[in-house]
Amino acid sequence: MRVCCNDKSEFKVTYDGGSMGNDTILVCKIHIIKHPFDKRIISKEEIEN
Questions:
Q1: What Cα–Cα distance (Å) separates residue 36 from each residue in 1, 17, 39, 48, 49?
Q2: pTM of this prediction?
């Protein structure tokens, strides 16, 4: 599964990819509030590490 960066992933986020289909990415707590990771979210679940 793809990740936003090398930091610890805190969320499993599914994005609306339009005609390309949905995309699921593991996102850290820093990027979850930054563009483009804060747009077009279908679902977000916190990962228990």
A1: 18, 12, 6, 24, 24
A2: 0.88
Residue 32: count of CB within 10 angstroms of its CB = 17
Domain boundaries, the chain: 2-46
The neighbour count for residue 40, using CB atoms within 10 Å, is 14
Which residue from 30, 25, 28, 2 is spatially nearest to 15, judged by alpha carbons? 25
Token match 């990415």: residue? Answer: 25
What tens digit of pLDDT does each residue of 1-23 get? 999 999 999 999 999 999 999 99
